[in-house]
Amino acid sequence: MDRIYCGQAPLPAELWLRWNLDPPLLLALLAMTWVFRREPAGLAAVGVLIVAFVSPLCALSSALFSARVVHHVLLLAVAAPLLGWARPLRRPIGPGLPFAVSTVVLWAWHHPAAYDLALSHVAVYWLMQISLLGSAVWFWSTVFSDHRAPVLHVTFIIAAFAQMGMLGAILTFTPTPLYAAHFIAPYDWGLTPLSDQQLGGLIMWVPAGIPYAIALGLLIRQNWDWHKDSTA
To answer: Euclidean distance between the first and final Cα of the chain, in Å?
Structure first.
């Protein structure tokens, strides 16, 4: 078995000492900062990725499934829309295929076997992260790139949150803990594996809707401004 990328699950007293200063990661984030140096949305996305991968949240997500859910929500519903806003597709396509791919990727990585494998092997861990973020950026860059079908894009944003919420509901009401990676560490944080999983499901089901609502508002504003300018 390979090492866990974010390290072994931390105890509460040591959490704030567990910053991830992995040199390749820091170089990648530095490169992204340079690429997006003139684009506020892109720089904000880099900040979100720093929270997800450099801050102690990375270590906490080794311990708690609920922290891993926060990590994934930051990638899919915050960093990805910001990157999609910063770099929309030059040749817009319909959102159907990107939506389908990103949905399949999200659900596939939350299958217990795939999830536990990702948390125990660094290469698989990064395959998880890159595929989750990449498919989500593809979806959001499609949504923000085409002003001709705002109703369609609004519908797909709602659908994107709905499918995440459905996954969250399933995790909330599943009567047994699913992920072996989180069978022990939650006890150190005053949780059982099941209550940790339920908390993660609730985060995915309810609070995760907030960034989707914000993105929806930005899309409506963007389309309003575009149609106003085009008819002026």
So the answer is: 62
**Residue 7: count of CB within 10 angstroms of its CB:** 13
Of 116, 104, 129, nearest to 49 (Cα)? 129
Q: What is the pTM of this model?
A: 0.91
Question: Residue 93 is encoded by which pair of tokens?
Answer: 């396509």
CB atoms under 10 Å from CB of 232, counted, come to 5
Half-sphere exposure of 187 (CA within 13 A, CB side): 3
Q: Tens digit of pLDDT for each residue in 81-132?
A: 999 999 988 787 889 999 999 999 999 999 999 999 999 999 999 999 999 9
How far is residue 62's CA from residue 78's CA, in Å, rounded to a whole number?
Answer: 21
Could you report the per-residue pLDDT of 183-209, keeping only the tens digit for each? 999 999 999 999 999 999 999 999 999
